[in-house]
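Q: Two folds, back to back.
A: First:
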Amino acid sequence: MTDFAIAPSILSADFARLGEEVDNVLASGADIVHFDVMDNHYVPNLTIGPLVCDALRNHGVTAPIDVHLMVKPVDRIIPDFAKAGASYITFHPEASEHIDRTLGLIKEQGCKSGLVFNPSTPLSHLDYVLDKVDMILLMSVNPGFGGQSFIPATLGKLRQARKIIDDSGLDIRLEIDGGVKVDNIGEIAAAGADTFVAGSGIFSFAQSGDANTYDTILGQFRKELAKV
């Protein structure tokens, strides 16, 4: 069976109880903490920075933290997130003047690196840097806001990315972000994804913070993935 990983996006969590929210989803079987960083420049929203990442680590979170940088430029802030405890740092090729250099910087800081592709961004950016990539993240919505609907054309792009990874023989995770729900996660997995970011698809079902509610929604995700 494919090593599927579920990565709740804390963008949809209750920030007044963030440590508790993260503890609950991890206790209910989530694998990775997805950390959406927006700068009100590259995308039209402003979210969180390295201090929040550091706070989660100090709170006791030991799970991998997957930092998705929707910022431009990216290089300046990468060392800050590495120091704050990021496990993965991914960025958009449009936000870097020198993609190879930025990937190398992430590696030098001791983190795993990745590229993020917006719905209309071609995968050709991978052509000469695939050996420096640990994760490919496909956006199935346009970045900037949570709660959007999955863009169906992403399924074909997932199949293309899966073939690139399989043909390379490299150990690269294929992540999907945007509109992932119980009713489409199986189809998304069948197209090639192995890592699934879900924000409102998880946290909107657990507004009370009741861990049992997280057990229910994550259990439904796992049930659909088991069919693939």
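A: Second:
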Amino acid sequence: MGKIPYFKPIDAEVDGNKLRLAISGKDRLGLLLGMIDGAKSTLRLFFYIFGNDATAEKVRGALIAARQRGVKIWLLVDGFGSANWADEVFKPLIDAGVFFARFNPRWGRGYLLRNHQKIVVADDARAIIGGSNVLDHYFADDPNGESWHDLLLQIEGPAVGRLGRYFDGLRRWTASERPTLRMLLHLMSRRSDKSGNIRWLFNGPFSRLSPLTRSIRQDIGSAKCCDMIQAYFAPNWGMLRRLANVEKRGGDMRLISAARSDNFATVAAARHCYRRLLRNRIRIFEYQPQMLHVKLIVADNTVYIGSANFDMRSLYINGEVMVRIEDGGFAERMRGLVDAHVPYCNEISREEHRAESTWLTRLRWLIAYFVVSTVDFTVTRTISLKRR
């Protein structure tokens, strides 16, 4: 498969907040462990998946060391994402005095509602969000293995306190005797920022558009330049139309999607969407060196980074968090990052896509899109909204 490219960390400052974007696996793990090692008073962590391998052991060891020097620690994991690891895996942390709980809805649909967020907040002064879970392959740079290419963003400054307050509300909801969906959605709505150059935006199974999805729709809907790197790309046709309209307005649109993944259906579902985009002169690339796990949107001077994929579950159902950063200089740096990925991609031309689109292949793509974007979405959303 070849050598994994190295992308240097990117540093910036926006509204008095220092930003550091770590891209390559070694840098992302160093950023996470450095955050834990540097904590002085408090650590709040939420992960969709927290496993039990060498990377998880390093993180557990760092958390135990932090607890031993007096840091108060709260660790939440998603009940579905981390279901493969029993509470016994977390016993050393609990024995060290770490507060541990699972996000596990108690109204009979725990399998369907997932909290896909990844959040670390240290001392109410520094925060990390992004896509990486706590397992080896999320931080490995191995072209021959199942390693993921991803992003983690560290923010240091006044914006961090608002994310910490969201975490505290989520922790109280998780620990309450009768947590309801209405309470959770109220928390996500109330803690989503409505203004500012750095905004925390949250998503869940709202009956209408969530603050996160509404914001993304508005920014894409008016953008004259849009770049995206998306691990899972299977939006509805309304969102595809908004993307196509970027070019119709005389703008430029690029999409980098996954050439390979842990689930063939997600790649096939994305390829089902290509035809409409290519017809509107949108350039599409598939990233080759690793499985892709990045969630990045750059729309004019606005950047989104966080946990949400560009698919129906992430945009309309999952618990997700993205940070919206409005800054022309930072957006330009992120476009440069997209530029740096292009040489490691295969560009999908309209002619190539048409040649590959045999009737059997189109049928497979259609079935994959139907399962990923329609069946899973409809069943989950129907149950969720009926049981508020």
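Q: And?
A: The domain at 203-386 is CATH 3.30.870.10 (Endonuclease; Chain A).
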